[in-house]
Structures are given as structure tokens and as C-alpha cells.
Design a protein that fits this description.
The structure is a single chain. 41% of the residues lie in helices and 17% in strands. The chain contains nine helices and nine strands. Strands 1-2-3-4-5 form a five-stranded mixed beta sheet, with helices on one face. A four-stranded mixed beta sheet has the order 6-7-8-9, covered by helices on one side. The protein is globular and about 55 Å long.
Length: 245
């Protein structure tokens, strides 16, 4: 199993992580990124391994996780794509609105209805997509209560390593820290506590997961403050919670 790490850089829309699994008949790719470099890296890796890409698993429909699908299908015409049908509702909801309201979502994506995550029992690795995101939980299209349920399901799986949709590889201890920080952040956002306090508490709790990059710490606090406002404007959920999971 291999990881092609994405990232969130200033003045650039995000790239989600790509996870590549070796299977008996070829490679299975979980999430194909947004930018050309990522799809090209996937294709180059497959060719270097002399293995075809036989399957794509999309954790969810956001563009930083599915934009490479057409290029991979062109390079490997026999591959199959596995995903939920949540894209159907998104086409008339979030994606339709984002076409006219794109600046608001410039540096954001989120967990959605029908999120898919993968567990490999042999390696005990869980590739969890955007159910774990750093430097903040991307709540634009998410229902926090559904997200909490999904995190509990992952926690009940005997994984040793978790690969998030955005951020570095995690141990079980790191995952537990993220889950606790998520619960605390949602509770704070749904309370009357000051917006800045909720954001600062989130940034403090996840600091061990962010490494030494000062930009990541600033992003954690700034993005958390944005999501406090979003949740409070929508009774503790995202505006798309009716079509999100």
C-alpha cells in the first residue's frame, strides 16, 4: 500500500490524499486528486510498477478526490469505479450552487452523504477519506451527527493505522485525539461560547497532529472560526445537511 500525499497550499485549491492498494490483478486507487500533478503521479506509479489500475474507489464526490478519474480511465480503460450515489443529490445542491458561489468554498471541502472508507484487515490500515481532515474538519456539506457516527464506526474497527483524506498518516492514538477534538469542537460551535474560543480550543487540541508547520496552526484556527460561523448560521449543521451524511 502506498500514499501520494495531497495538501492545502496558499492560493491553491486543496488536493486530497491518494491511497494505492496492490491487488492480485493490479492496483486499486482510492481518490484521484484535483490537480494534474496527482493524476500524472498515479499513472507514472502504475507504469513504474508495471501494474494496471483495475479499480478506483472514491471516498466521496468532492473535486479534490475525483477529478483524476477521467484521466485514469483513459489510461486504463478496463478499470471499474466504486463509489456511493451521493453525487446525484450533489449535482442539484452543493455543486450547482458552488458554480455561482465558488469564492466561499475556495479552500474547502467536506464529508458528504454516503462517504466510503476502506479497511484492509491484513495490514490493519483504514483509509478513511474526509471523515478525518486536517487542519480542520471540512463541514461545508456535512451533518456533524452523522460524522460522529462514522468516526465511532471507524474506532470500532481494529485498525493500527488510519490514512485521512487530508493530513498525515495516523496511529490509533492520533485518531482518538482527532475524534475527541472533533466532538469538543462541534459541542462548542453549538454552544454560546465565543467563536474565537472554539477555534482556539480546536487548534490547541489538534496541535500534536499538525507537526511544526506554523501555517498549519494558523489554518487550523482560521478555518475552525469559519466553520463555527457556518454551523451557527444553520442550527448546528451545514446548509446541505439534508443531503449530507
Amino acid at each position: 500500500m502506498w500514499l501520494l500525499a495531497g495538501g492545502i497550499r496558499p492560493e491553491r485549491q486543496p488536493d486530497g490524499n491518494t491511497v494505492i492498494f496492490s491487488a492480485p490483478k493490479g492496483l486499486a486507487v482510492m481518490d484521484t486528486g484535483r490537480h494534474a500533478w496527482q493524476r500524472e503521479a498515479i499513472i507514472a506509479f502504475a507504469r513504474a510498477e508495471r501494474q494496471p489500475v483495475i479499480a478506483i474507489v472514491n471516498s466521496h464526490w468532492h473535486l479534490d478526490h475525483v477529478s483524476g478519474n477521467p484521466a485514469l480511465r483513459a489510461a486504463f480503460p478496463g478499470l471499474k469505479v466504486y463509489a456511493s450515489d451521493a453525487i446525484d443529490a450533489a449535482l442539484t445542491g452543493f455543486l450547482a450552487k458552488s458554480a455561482t458561489d465558488a469564492p466561499r468554498y475556495l479552500a474547502a471541502n467536506a464529508t458528504t452523504a454516503g462517504d466510503v472508507w476502506v479497511y484492509d484487515p491484513r495490514s490493519r490500515i483504514a483509509a478513511v477519506g474526509d471523515l478525518v481532515t486536517l487542519p480542520a474538519p471540512f463541514l461545508d456539506t456535512a451533518c456533524p451527527d452523522g460524522w460522529r457516527t462514522a468516526l465511532a464506526q471507524i474506532a470500532a474497527t481494529p485498525f493500527r493505522t488510519a490514512i485521512p483524506g487530508h493530513g498525515a498518516v495516523m496511529s490509533r492514538t492520533h485518531f482518538a485525539l482527532y475524534r475527541a477534538a472533533f466532538d469538543s469542537f462541534i459541542d462548542c460551535a453549538r454552544s454560546t461560547s465565543a467563536r474565537g474560543l472554539c477555534a482556539a480550543n480546536w487548534a490547541s487540541m489538534v496541535k500534536p497532529l499538525l507537526g511544526d508547520d506554523p501555517l498549519a496552526s494558523r489554518q487550523a484556527k482560521g478555518m475552525a472560526a469559519y466553520y463555527v460561523d457556518l454551523l451557527r448560521a444553520n442550527r448546528g449543521n451545514s446548509p446541505y445537511c439534508a443531503t449530507a451524511g
